[in-house]
Amino acid sequence: MSDSIPNLNPVPLAFEDAPKYKFSEVPAESRVRVYGVWYAYLKDEVGNEFYITRLGWRLLDNLQADNWYTDKTYSTNGEHLIEGSGKVYRVPTENRHGNPCDLVVKFSRFAEAVPLHVAKTFPDKMPEDVGDAEFNDPFQEFGLLIDLRNGHFGDKSLRIKTKHPVAIFSPSKRVPAWKLGREKSRFDKYRLRAQKNSDPKYSQVELNIDQQYVYLFAWVKGWNAAVHAAEGLISEAEARELTLRIEKELKEKGFRVLDNKPQHIILREGKDGKIIKRNGEFEYALVDFELLQRTEEYEDFLREKNKMK
Length: 309
What we know:
- 24% of the residues lie in helices and 20% in strands.
- The protein has a domain at 13-221.
- A hairpin with a 2-residue loop joins β13 (277-278) and β14 (281-282).
- The strands form four sheets. Strands 1, 2, 3, 4, 5, 6, 7, 8 and 9 form a nine-stranded mixed beta sheet that branches.
- The chain is an alpha+beta fold.
């Protein structure tokens, strides 16, 4: 993906034509780079838009709207996940060869007011600036998440496992901004921020106030720490200690999640029915990033790094 094109709106690649290409071979006019992440820009026959990441390219069949979205399949055939106040579903899909993949379907709440409530299980006080919290927009969230997964900052031996961000979806049907909880002045901040963080050598992404955006992730096997605590597989003290540990490890990698809590921490059981550990500590994966932020220490590091370019 080295060739450049003028600063234009991206030209969608037809969904049915996408399998002809490897991700790196997608035509330049049909790809964008926002917040440091590459996407292939696709449209299906009814005008639904897809921004597919490198991680999602192998799941093209599964990502087709008829598999999870059309006629609200995410609701009728999926499982509503209770992870907070957002709309999140686990939806089973199969590709043309019958290979299954469960998708996590999450409706973005960016440009809405943040109804931030501290759960009783939260182990420490919230950051002082939590009152100014904003939901990340989809491209911002994927950019932060992939940065976290890459682990460029801090201890290189420490890796934070997360669910895989595979695509951002926008249905063809427009929705009045008031129904999406979006106020124009708040929304414009996101739109301008996305433009500022788009690679100027490539096509640009234009966030639209009346356009719905949906995250698609690959499902992470296991259940959250709050469920395991309720079932007695771990104690409340262990859930608390794990949450504190993750808060510390995120900080070491230059990040924080404003609503870090056991419901966002996935643990897996081994064949013996016990929660899997490595070197005496629970193995985990994180699954919610609406309120993921870089720490000031990491932001300073990036500013100094950019000065040297």
